User: Which sequence fits this backbone?
């Protein structure tokens, strides 16, 4: 299945500092190199593999916005598998949640060995400290990367969010917010980032609170140790998170390097 891309141009005053963003497209590469280029860019979070033959190349794009400690991306891609193993989680020490809205397509697979089936229009959450193995159709997806330490203080208790699907009402509310936010970000001033980040976290927490009592508690020992380890690693790298360091090292969106703070 081929994925068509739509590109909308915006115009702003040249001297207005806007929210940092980056666009990556595999069409910038020869067809034989497209999947390898995509795999390298996405490797900061997942190991990926194609589900179809690559004779005609691999069409994919990622348009990302840096919102302080949050990262919001819109991606389009052809069918592929996504994997995070226990070994991978121990090695890269990502201590983030991945909140996703599939606007087209979806995926099936397992999270911590439990089945999951995500359809278009569904808002779901993956814990990047846990195992994931999924198979996605050709899709368009909005992804919000949230540090654990940013969202947990806003919840009534520490809960297991891995594989969590927002209920229909809260899912519609948060998906509408993400779609509106994504439309506005290309022309939004950089000075608005702290307010956008705070509003996004508050709304996400509000959508999670009603079901918090029904969710399993998060096992304390493993995750507290993990958070301390991640904080130590981040402090050694000047306070930047693992994902920010990956951006700076060129393993995600290459031209974010010039946009992130020194």
Assistant:
């Amino acid at each position: 299945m081929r994925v068509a891309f739509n590109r909308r141009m915006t115009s702003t005053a040249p001297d207005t500092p806007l929210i940092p963003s980056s666009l990556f497209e595999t069409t910038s590469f020869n067809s034989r190199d497209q999947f390898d280029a995509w795999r390298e860019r996405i490797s900061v979070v997942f190991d990926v593999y194609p589900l179809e033959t690559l004779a005609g190349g691999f069409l994919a794009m990622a348009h990302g916005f840096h919102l302080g400690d949050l990262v919001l991306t819109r991606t389009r891609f052809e069918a592929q598998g996504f994997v995070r193993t226990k070994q991978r989680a121990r090695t890269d020490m990502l201590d983030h949640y991945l909140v996703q809205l599939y606007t087209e397509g979806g995926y099936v697979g397992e999270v911590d060995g439990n089945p999951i089936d995500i359809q278009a229009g569904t808002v779901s959450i993956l814990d990047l400290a846990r195992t994931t193995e999924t198979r996605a159709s050709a899709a368009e997806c909005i992804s919000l990367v949230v540090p654990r330490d940013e969202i947990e203080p806003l919840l009534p208790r520490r809960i297991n969010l891995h594989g969590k699907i927002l209920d229909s009402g809260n899912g519609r509310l948060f998906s509408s917010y993400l779609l509106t936010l994504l439309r506005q970000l290309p022309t939004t001033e950089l000075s608005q980032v702290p307010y956008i980040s705070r509003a996004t976290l508050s709304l996400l927490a509000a959508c999670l609170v009603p079901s918090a009592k029904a969710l399993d508690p998060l096992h304390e020992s493993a995750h507290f140790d993990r958070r301390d380890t991640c904080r130590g690693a981040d402090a050694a790298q000047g306070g930047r998170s693992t994902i920010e360091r990956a951006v700076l090292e060129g393993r995600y969106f290459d031209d974010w390097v010039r946009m992130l703070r020194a």
